[in-house]
Known about the structure:
The complex is a heterodimer.
Chain A: E1 8-12, H1 17-28, E2 32-37, H2 40-50, E3 54-58, H3 64-78, E4 83-86, H4 101-128, E5 132-137, H5 150-172, E6 177-184, H6 193-196, H7 205-210, H8 221-232, E7 243-246
Parallel strand pairs in A: 1-2, 1-4, 2-3, 4-5, 5-6, 6-7
Helix pairs in contact in A: 1-8, 3-4, 4-5
Chain B: E1 5-6, E2 9-10, E3 19-23, H1 28-39, E4 43-48, E5 58-61, H2 67-80, E6 86-89, H3 105-131, E7 142-147, H4 160-182, E8 187-194, H5 203-209, H6 211-220, H7 230-241, E9 252-255
Parallel strand pairs in B: 3-4, 3-6, 4-5, 6-7, 7-8, 8-9
Antiparallel strand pairs in B: 1-2
Helix pairs in contact in B: 1-7, 2-3, 3-4, 5-6
Amino acid sequence: MSRLEGKVVLISGGASGIGAATARLVAREGGKAVLADRDEAKGRALADELGDGALFTALDVADETSWTKAVAATVETFGGLHGLLNAAGVGVRNSIEDCSLAEFRRVNDINGLGTFLGCKAAIPAMKQAGGGSIVNISSVLGLRGASYAMAYCASKGAVRLLTKHVALHCAQMKYNIRCNSVHPGYIDTPMIAPRLDQSIGNMSGRQSLEELHPLGRLGRAEEVAHMILFLLSDESSFSTGSEFVCDGGLTA
Amino acid sequence: MRPDRYGDVDMSGELSGQVAIVTGGASGIGAASATLLAAAGAAVVVADLNAAKDGIGRFVRHDVTAEESWQALLADVLEREGRLDIMINNAGISGGAGSVESTDVETWQRVQAVNAEGVFLGCKYAIQGMKRTGPDKSTSKGSIVNISSVAGLQAGAGSIAYTASKGAVRLLSKSVALYCAEQKYDIRCNSVHPGGVDTPIFDLLWQFMGRDQGKAMIDKRHPIGRMAEPSEIGEVVLWLASDRSSFVTGAEIAADGGITTGLMRRQPFVAS
């Protein structure tokens, strides 16, 4: 198992959910995983569990200096940077009528600005390393609208498009850096936990979410991580600027 | 200005009695939209930072990034015009030519504030205004048109901040459309994705490489071989604003001379 042998991957939101599942796969496939997260306790615990192949570093994705430090810590510890997964994000329920400007900005700062800053911070280090692969987590709600997630839809639409910009820019500059977006459906992670408690009619919160997917269930973080692994590895060397959907058929 | 006949259909008066707000209405696509909406009979309020010389409609000084400005604008329109039926969220900035590497946080935030937060607030206050009914308006019926861009459909047509902001507009428009449908407000919301349009948004580029040369470069990017005139986008806006598009909501309407359509044959090589 060495699909990422010799590759160093920085993962925002690496302490939980899709980020953590990807970190486990990266370590299993011979790569180094840098878990960058706000949640120090969880991040350190996972880094300890993964052993020599992992490092924890504190990260506030909306702060450019914090990104610079995270990339520097990565290069200092593992000697380079080849992969970036922008998995940190917030899922917030609001509509056009009840979302405040402050809330709209908070969601877009974490999901949109945070992803932009991650790409910006990683590119110089990847250039040094001779190339790399950036994977940005958008959502099915970056492809379709949702009446109950206005600010989130806006932020994931931004991620979907900024990904294409990064892909074209790096191609044009001949950096050998690829950039793709991943669009998960509802994945059984801490992000959707609040939804699981909200029953709708005689359906539990979980059932109502499961029913959205033709496959009839929620996705597992590992299922998304396998798609990300493919994108981080050289197996996907001709894919850039693309939208990779992992949604149990939701958008079909 | 376009004639007020549409083929055999007389458009004059089609929007009479209706009130429209056009942000960024003093120039470019906004001014063209304001002109066409007025020609179809709507009372048009042009909301812009600066008034146009001899501009159409009633001018209200407005900053789309400031929530207080939106509150004041809506209160003013409801008092003076008495109702709101059509909202054209058109104001936008290009943010220059910044790439992922050269864009700073300040530029990013400025572009998001105008292009994304401005449209968010525009939709939010439009719904408030459209929901208000009165003696001459019995339901909350209305149409919101958000100007996105080809840059909201594919990259390569602007800065990273611009393309991200237009992607945000594309998706938030769908969220607004679905929410209004769910609430049974009879308010539709769609996004328009123009290609290159000959408006002041290109002033920076014209300064940089000269208008003729710059225009020739932008012309060539369109399969139909030219940029659009603002009125050509105004026509799409007018259609979406009117009841002619009554079954269209949450849609992405490209008016881009074919840019996002696909591949064309390359020009054959001619040996000299």
